[in-house]
Amino acid sequence: MYVALAALAAIALYVVFIYNGLVKSRQMAEEAWSGIDVQLKRRADLIPNLIETVKGYASHERSTLEAVVELRNKAQAVPSGDVAGRAAAEGLLGQALGRVIALAEAYPDLKANENFVELQRSLETVENEIQMSRRYYNGAARDLNVKVESFPSNLIAGQFGFAKKPYFEIANEADRAVPTVKF
């Protein structure tokens, strides 16, 4: 009887151990997504200032500038938990931002403008932070996904409703291309 109780206690402890590991992994993935969300918000906050600065020099590039604003608004409208939708919207926004930054080549005065240079530097810093946040999130999502799919933790994950997290990645190959600017 003691052996049976000891075996049941060991199994219960093992289930608790696996469950706690799954909770930790899920929390790590959610915290990582929060980091991406913060960086995307920082980028979205920089865009209006960048657009206003460029508008002063490149008023006839209105369609490019309006496209960036429109894509920013679409990206902000995607629900925070929709990783795939947010990744797609942010990929398009990143391409459009690349076109705005490339406009500086056509406007030497803009390249020399202190506000533009500072905004460009800030945007570059945010883009680097977004890249690091994406890697961290994808690593946390991978760790959770491995636990959700691996035996025996998949048995506990299924019983307690743990689900895989999607990766934050660019789904469209065209979004990976370097943006081109045509005048």
A few lines on this structure:
The protein has 183 residues and is mainly α. It has 6 helices and no strands. InterPro entries: LemA-like_dom_sf, MamQ_LemA.
Notes on the protein architecture:
- This protein has helices spanning 2-57, 62-77, 83-103, 108-112, 114-149, 153-159.
- It is rod-shaped.
- It is built from six helices and no strands.
- The protein is 77% helix and 0% strand.
- The chain has a single domain, classed as LemA-like domain (de novo design (two linked rop proteins)).
- Helix 1 runs antiparallel to helix 2, helix 1 (2-57) runs parallel beside helix 3 and helix 1 packs antiparallel against helix 5.
- By secondary structure, it is an all-alpha fold.
Give the helix/strand layout.
Blueprint: H1 2-57, H2 62-77, H3 83-103, H4 108-112, H5 114-149, H6 153-159
Helix pairs in contact: 1-2, 1-3, 1-5, 2-3
